[in-house]
Amino acid sequence: MADAAGRLTKLAEEVLGAPLPVRIRAWDRSESGPPGAPTLVIRHRRALRRMLFKPGELGLARAWVAGDLDIEGDLYAALDLLAGLIWERPGGGGSPRAAVLRALARPEIRAAARELLVLAGAPVPPAPPVEEVRRRRGPLHTLRRDKAAISHHYDVGNDFYALVLGPSMVYSCAYWGTGDGAGAFTLEDAQHDKLDLICRKLGLREGRRLLDVGCGWGSMVLHAAREYGVRAVGITLSEEQATFARKRIAEAGLADRIEIRVQDYREIHDEPFDAISSIGMAEHVGRTRYAEYADALYALLKPGGLLLNHQIARRPIVDEEAYRVDEFIDRYVFPDGELAPLGRTVGQLEDAGFEVRDVEAIREHYALTLRRWVANLEEHWDRAARLTSPGRARVWRLYMAACALSFERNRLGVNQVLAVRTPDTGDAGQPLRARTWRPVAPGA
Questions:
Q1: Both ends of the chain: CA-CA distance in Å?
Q2: Closest to 353 measured CA to CA, from 284, 304, 404
Q3: Which residues contact 115 (CB under 8 A, 6 or more apart)?
Q4: Is 373 helix (H, G, I), strand (E, B) or coil?
Q5: Per-residue pLDDT tens over the stretch 183-217
Q6: Pick from 163-177, 274-288, 314-328, 377-391: least confident
Q7: How far is the C-alpha of 70 from the C-alpha of 67, rounded, in Å?
């Protein structure tokens, strides 16, 4: 077992056909790789067994969440180096699993793989970490299954989210200033500006009625009621979020203007609303239900009513039917979540009857936001791990850092789509130069 790090480095380079750009430190304290590079720490041989039994993202994720695998040094630099070598290699076949299968066709690699089996120890698959969502059965996106998926992600403790998100308690892309970007404002300033931008795009003013779909901890409805005088309904599937939001609303003295419900968008049968905001919620809807989602929101708006759909988008692929959510995200972060290209989202909103009036791409803003959330988590690491579990905190750190890089590399985007239920008269009630997004004058 001597020099496990050197043996693993050699094996990895043979499989990948390229130098390993990170350093490895193994459980036997051996080290190998370029000095000064971020270090991949393999704390236990169990990490190898996890990767052998589940090659690809799931095996790596299980090793990371369990604490069998860690990174010392700059987390972003390490992820960037590994992504460039494996996940984004030209001709790399799209996944570590594909690289391994191609490599095993070569006799010398099969010999190296046998050595890896020896290094890994007992040929028994380790149990998955308790933070993992087990395989789900039945149709996607039923009311019951969606509620369970939302609970997994959001019902991990309001105090934990307060550490990560900060006082704004907004869990979606902030809207940063120009110039030096993140240095222009605090996270709270940028989240305030995002909420205010949405209110202005929706033309909110006193007397109007707003529905916030996926209201989270109530920040949007609070801002709209306090700053624009609207009456608002916020819906969420998270009991913890609803409890927190109601407390904030009561403390702000706005309980007569805001109602928070634990309710699915498919269960709303209210009188039509003047405006609907959906901020970071549509990613949970799923492609099999998106037409239903768009139809439901269209039906809930008055003629002339506006929808602001704020949604993460992925880049289109050649075979859209082959799209699958990566296993780490599906098992640990957003069970059953699905991302769609922007074009499909716009098309389905139009199919429902909406007239799309504006699309604003803000992907760089999300990279800045995620880096701030990661910094908050790292600053309060010990408390965050106590409030949930060390494994859960590790999930959030990895997924937020990896997503920041995905937005920076243009693998993911996020867009605000403003759409209107245009009346039969054809007058959408929108200004000729809408991008000014000025607040509506009192009495207008």
A1: 78
A2: 304
A3: 7, 11
A4: helix
A5: 458 999 999 999 999 999 999 999 999 999 999 99
A6: 314-328
A7: 7
- Rounded Cα distance between 357 and 224, Å, is 21
pLDDT single digits (tens) 413-444: 999 999 999 999 999 988 887 677 766 545 44
Contact 49, 69 (CB under 8 A): no
| Block residue for tokens 């236990």 | 44
146-153 CB contacts, 8 Å cutoff, 24+ apart: 146/237, 146/264, 146/284, 146/336, 147/237, 147/264, 148/335, 149/284, 149/334, 149/335, 149/336, 149/337, 150/236, 150/237, 150/238, 150/284, 151/237, 151/238, 151/239, 152/335, 153/333, 153/334, 153/335
SS3 state at 419: strand
Q: Which CATH superfamily is domain 143-436 in?
A: Vaccinia Virus protein VP39 (3.40.50.150)
Q: How many of the other CB atoms lie within 10 Å of CB of 429?
A: 13
Name the pairing type of β-strands 31-32 and 23-25: antiparallel
Find the farthest-apart pair of alpha carbons in the chain and give their distance in angstroms, rounded: 80
What does DSSP say about strands 258-262 and 23-25: parallel, antiparallel, or unpaired? Answer: unpaired
Mean pLDDT of 250-272: 96
143-165 tens-digit pLDDT = 888 888 788 777 788 999 999 99
pLDDT in tens, 247-260: 999 999 999 999 99
CA angle 348, 304, 237 (to 5 degrees): 55
pLDDT band at 91 (very low <50, low <70, confident <90, very high): very low
Tokens of 14: 């043979």
3-class secondary-structure state, position 266: helix
**113 CB neighbour count, 10 Å cutoff:** 16
Domain ranges across the chain: 4-120, 143-436
**Phi, psi dihedrals of residue 104, rounded to the nearest 5°:** -70, -10
* pTM (two decimals): 0.90
- The CB-side HSE value for 413 (13 A sphere, CA atoms) comes to 17
3-state secondary structure of 112: helix
Distance, in Å, from the CA atom of 171 to the CA atom of 318, rounded to the nearest integer, reads 31
Instruction: Please report, as a single letter, which amino acid is at residue 247.
Output: K
At 177 the pLDDT is 82
